[in-house]
Amino acid sequence: QVQLVESGGGLVEAGGSLTLSCAASGRTFSRYSMAWFRQAPGKERERVALISSSGNILSYLDSVKGRFTISRDNAKNTVYLQMNSLQSEDTAVYYCAADLIYGRGEYAYWGQGTQVTVSS
């Protein structure tokens, strides 16, 4: 069982930066690939970034490449999403999720979400 708790969301002006954190409970965090998703009002949820269990394989949504960076610290059971050059289109609730197999797309565990609002 893995419990995920996101933090770090908030209100930021366009062009600004935020760093989201996702803290995981349990001793098996390092076995899971981790992802950040987002869902804006009236839109489908989309995967923003993905990181393998060891942290050496990364994947990003095209629209955030070069602006967002996913990373993890397995010693701290935490995954991060550094978001730079934020745009109004990045406004959404951001969720972290865990999957045992990188790229499989079967996320057994989800956080409760954190709101990111970018003002233009």
What features would you describe in this structure?
The structure is a single chain. By secondary structure, the protein is mainly β. The protein has no helices and eleven strands. The protein has strands spanning 4-7, 10-13, 18-24, 33-39, 46-51, 58-60, 68-73, 78-83, 92-99, 109-110, 114-119. Strands 2, 4, 5, 6, 9, 10 and 11 form a seven-stranded mixed sheet that branches. A hairpin with a 4-residue loop joins strand 7 (68-73) and strand 8. It is globular, with a radius of gyration of 13 Å. The termini are far apart.
| Gap from first CA to last CA | 40 Å
- What sort of overall outline do the alpha carbons produce when their principal axes are compared? globular
Count helical runs.
0
Q: Radius of gyration, rounded?
A: 13 Å
Give the secondary structure arrangement, pairings included.
Layout: E1 4-7, E2 10-13, E3 18-24, E4 33-39, E5 46-51, E6 58-60, E7 68-73, E8 78-83, E9 92-99, E10 109-110, E11 114-119
Parallel strand pairs: 2-11
Antiparallel strand pairs: 1-3, 3-8, 4-5, 4-9, 5-6, 7-8, 9-10, 9-11
List its traits.
120 residues, mainly beta, seven-stranded mixed β-sheet, four-stranded antiparallel β-sheet, 11 strands, globular
